[in-house]
Amino acid sequence: MDKLGNILHSLNFFYPEIALTLTFFILLLVDLFFRKSKHLLPVLSLIGYVITGYFSFTTPNASGFLFSTGMANVGLYITDSFAFYFKLIILLSLIYTVLFSILSKEINESTENRGEYYALLASFGLGMFLLTSSTDLITIYLAFEMVSLSSYILAGFTRKVPRSAEASLKYIIFGAVASGVMIYGISILYGLTGTTNIYLINFYLANQNYNTLTLVIAGLMIIGGFGFKISMAPFHFWTPDVYEGAPITITAVLSVASKAAGFAILIRFLKVAFVDYAATNLQASLWAILPGFQWNDILAVLSVLTMTLGNLAALWQNNLKRMLAYSSIAHAGYMLSGFVILDNQGILAILIYFAIYLFMNLGAFFIVMLISDKLGSEDIDDYTGLGYKAPFLTVSLTIFLVSLTGIPPTAGFIAKLYLFAALVNTGWLWLALVGVVNSVISLYYYMRVVKNMFLRESISTYEQKIELGHVLISFSLLIPTLVFGVYFKPLIELAEKSIRIFGF
Amino acid sequence: MAGIPYLSLITFLPILGMVIILLIDSKKITLIKLISLIITFSQLVLSVILWINFNYKAVGINDPNSFQFVEKWRWIEIKNLVEWIGTIKIDYFLGVDGLSMPMVLLTALICFLGVIASWNIPKAIKGYFALYLLLDTGMIGSFLALDFFLFYIFWEIMLLPMYFLIGIWGGPRKEYAAIKFFIYTLVGSVLMLLVMLGLYFSTYEILPDGTQVYTFNMLQMMNPSNYSKEGLLSPFNPHNLRFIAYIFLFIGFAIKVPMFPFHTWLPDAHVEAPTPISVILAGILLKLGTYGMMRISFPVFPEITNQLVYWIAIFGAINIIYGALCAMAQKDFKSLIAYSSISHMGYVLLGMASLTTQGTIGALFQMFNHGTITAMLFMIVGVVYDRAHTRGVNDFGGLALQMPVYTGIVTVAFFASIGLPGLSGFISEALVFLGAFSSDSIRIIAAISTLGILLTAGYMLWTLQRVFFGKLNPKWSQLPDVNKIEIAALAPLAVIVIFFGIYPSPMLNLMNSSINKLVEVVSNAPVVFSNLSLIIK
Lengths: 504, 537
Hints:
The complex is a heterodimer. Chain A is mostly helical. Chain A has 21 helices and two strands. Chain A has a domain of 211 residues. In chain A, helix 2 packs antiparallel against helix 6, helix 4 runs antiparallel to helix 12 and helix 6 runs parallel beside helix 12. The relative contact order of chain A is 0.09. Chain B is mainly α. Helix content of chain B is 69%, strand content 5%. Chain B is built from 21 helices and four strands. In chain B, the strands form two sheets. Chain B has a two-stranded antiparallel sheet. A two-stranded antiparallel ribbon of chain B has the order 3-4. In chain B, a hairpin with a 5-residue loop joins strand 3 and strand 4. The radius of gyration of chain B is 23 Å and the shape is globular. Chains A and B meet through helix 15, helix 18, helix 19 and helix 21 of A and strand 1, helix 5, helix 6 and helix 7 of B.
């Protein structure tokens, strides 16, 4: 097939990404002409995302690589059910972010440039879409940068607020270092194998001799880059500051979508490039990894570090957004532990965890947003006695926090159940034990919020009128959080169907 | 009988009540209370219906066919989509036998009386009763579930309502007490979660179509032939971790009991909780710990139970004596009762550890009796606290003259707690000691534990003397006697305590065949399990 033919053929499987790109352009253009209209942009964004969703569902998975470079029949991009699952999560969190933004006082009052806001959100989404499906280190890096650049600006979007500007700057500095380290790792890996395609890298590593130390260094650097995106310790330092400073809608999308994209590419890269196919029975769930680079042991240590640091730091936070930031670090740690067992059960657990995490974490951020818009504060101490002033919001927040802790009958329990089940079943008992102990620690800080809301008498003159939109969005997040806690069959089935990574 | 899902009704009736209450305007206080009362009363009636229709011969324990009022259907079934995952199935599986029936009766009774005792709860009535009913469902469900997963869900459902009930309606240190309760019990439950998963991946159930699937079914876990060869907790696996799993599970339950050294949450929770919640906590929640041991730890890990009964007995003895000594030192009436609970739960551990039918029946009966007697004691403290707003044992004196009816009821409860013949506490403690003395391994521990009876008599009588006899403190010369609501809550319990003290047979017969089976399952186990591992070798 000639190159042009290949590209044209590839475009048939590229509709979701094309739809997102068009959404991005349309948003920019419309903003030029209709600056005054308040609801046009978010509505257009929503339409764009729905169309993207429609194409994601209707476009079949390609049977081979897309955008083939002509060399050895490999390409830059693939569409598989694994990527589809993560795209679904990314898209859902984008839709929720737009909905949150419509209701957010912070976004509507602090800036005139809503056009850029929604457009950047779309480009952010596009970057994440590309990231989940990339199979070449070059596309991975480009998509990675696209996600990063969009999110740097979005994090500082309410730039008149000093802490938002600070957040953005910190994010850029950390992000620049992370991507620098990553590209250095990529170049070493290229030097070692002579290719940037992750499937070919695997082929060379499996069949040729290489210097183990060099490989380890390159691998660690690339993991560091991805680790930055998923806020894995010790690359998590930016998270609390950025999450606290960024507008809360952006914090919400960063904590779910950007993390999902990071996880998707981390799993794809390591699983494709460093698994020993010759020794792995593709029908079974367990894989063998190539000798020399024991990345799963490294990740095991980092996962323990991530969840423990996240939880311990969260204990001391007084700002609710900052606390949720640390809690999201801890959740990344839990999910990471599902990956180190080198078993598809672990991947399944991560997929399930992400879907549930999407609902409960966005839910928590949404309620915090609504309350802080009225209260003017995210300080946990200011939540004192709110349970009696705003029963609906506080009860909802309690449910989300309980779910984040992982207590039945909420969905958070099912997420943790599948994760710990995978760990127990593959014999990683110490990791399971660390995980459950961490869950108990997390109870303390989540309950601290609940304690302030319900166990203490009110001191503030807070008053909240509940609008229909608030209730509807809250319910759309509450229902999955509760229903998946007692009837999780559909979710598990979807995740089981999505476990397949192209080539396996 | 067939066709009516009694057990689901009895479990989910409170949830229905909760939903109704949540929909009612929070100003209609009386209506909310009445609904709670009706719901819990219907629950009590249902449990009595179960008792009347109970087949005393059916054994239960590990025999799926002899459970009664069984409800079993597929809750989650995920067909074999991916080769290596296989089919996942979880059953909704409820049933009663002689082990759970007394506990269901106890729960229904205490929950009903608890509503009466809650009549004068000061604030946020709607939230209180909604949470109360949710708690009720969690407790009854835990006693009825025969699927480990379902059991775990019900077990955890209890945590959150309890946290709020202590935390919102409690005393001055409520925040500390509530979170301490929550964290302690959550530590226990996550350990239990790990064991549950380990057991799940070690046991197979064979479906009608011949496929083997992992199972959460407790009864299947009790049958050694269901274990896979390489499972982590399979007796056939030479490197199995059953011992560690047993310890984990045991700690999970021991925290609830609470067994020394995991007991420190209890005095805090009890002292801070409002009266009805203390009643529920002592009357039912603590029983879940020992119930879990009998229902799960013992029959699922019989061979390890046999190895460890000696230690269980020792901890039981420590509970008895340590609890009693602490109770003696308390100046706060409520924390005195709390420590006496620790002491009395020690008898349950001792009776179970005897691995004899008498001892184990004694333990189960002690659970029931402690539930009723301690419920009385906490209500008694509540009565005096509501009037005097102090609970210092030394602040009172001579109340007998001032509150004669009250003192009469108190005397019944105190003497039942001491174990005076003719009251229910005597029967169960006597059975516990009968069993413990007839077991060769723990006879010495039993002998030491008898010291506890003396200590109990000591602190109870001393308290009686300090609070009710002697000279009346003039400060209390205006205290009214018990009112009708309080009598309505206390009198049924007093009647039960006296009735079962004189005529315990209905309860003992109820337990007999199941406990016989339980003891048989556990004490015959080493042979069964070691035989099978020989075959494998």
